[in-house]
Design brief:
Largest sheet: 2 strands, antiparallel
Oligomer: single chain
Helix content: 55-70%
Shape: globular
Number of helices: 9
Strand order of the largest sheet: 1-2
Distance between the termini: 29 Å
Structural class: mainly alpha
Order of helices and strands: HHHHEEHHHHH
Number of strands: 2
């Protein structure tokens, strides 16, 4: 199968991010991807409020830390864009024929907990589909962390886990559309001016954030 240039660039970006995370020795790619996906469906959470979750303790090599932070911010921006035109594919790991969704769900759940209003805002809001979607993701994340505290009203644990990858994908799209509407973002509209605010949510101009030349 011949990949398009866009797909090749995406694969290269993810490989660089994976290697940087592995070298850093903390959060993995799947958990980071779930965390970032949650950032994309919630009200803006400033970069300074969540980047420590990814980076953890100060990196011994400041240059390596800066590279990792830059790769994370680019991934955050790319994930938002992919959700916008429905090309986002969660970074679930795979072992033989089994799809490992657990770390992604935990990453999403941790990001949701980081935000001071997101969960309450969705749960108390009028969009029943968004409420169901968020409850489902958090329930699956809860199953990974502590099965004894699983909310029985969500469904049967075994049945949910059997279809977890499908549930998670549908739910993150439902939350994104609840916040931004069902209208897809045209590819041409994804272009960002160098002086525009960076879509990653850092609050910086694009040219001084994800638009910095590698």
């Amino acid at each position: 199968m011949v990949l398009s240039r866009e797909d090749r660039e995406r694969e290269e970006r993810l490989e660089m991010l994976y290697d940087a995370l592995e070298a850093h020795g903390g959060i993995g790619l799947s958990e980071l991807d779930g965390f970032v996906a949650a950032l994309c469906v919630m009200p803006l959470l400033p970069h300074k409020d969540w980047i420590s979750y990814v980076l953890g303790a100060p990196e011994a090599d400041p240059a390596a830390r800066l590279v990792l932070e830059s790769l994370v911010m680019v991934h955050s921006s790319a994930t938002f864009q992919e959700l916008g035109y429905r090309s986002y594919v969660p970074q679930f790991m795979q072992e033989h024929d089994e799809i490992l969704w657990q770390e992604w769900a935990v990453g999403f759940g941790n990001a949701a907990a980081y935000h001071p209003t997101f969960i309450d805002e969705v749960v108390s809001g009028p969009d029943e589909e968004a409420v169901a979607a968020l409850n489902l993701i958090l329930a699956l994340a809860g199953l990974v962390v502590n099965e004894d505290e699983f909310r029985k009203d969500i469904g049967k644990p075994d049945e949910l886990m059997a279809e977890a990858p499908t549930h998670l994908i549908r739910s993150v799209y439902a939350l994104f559309e609840s916040r931004y509407g069902e209208r897809l973002i045209p590819r041409r509209a994804v272009k960002i001016g160098r002086n525009d605010p960076c879509p990653c949510g850092s609050g910086k101009k694009y040219k001084k954030c994800c638009g910095v030349p590698a």
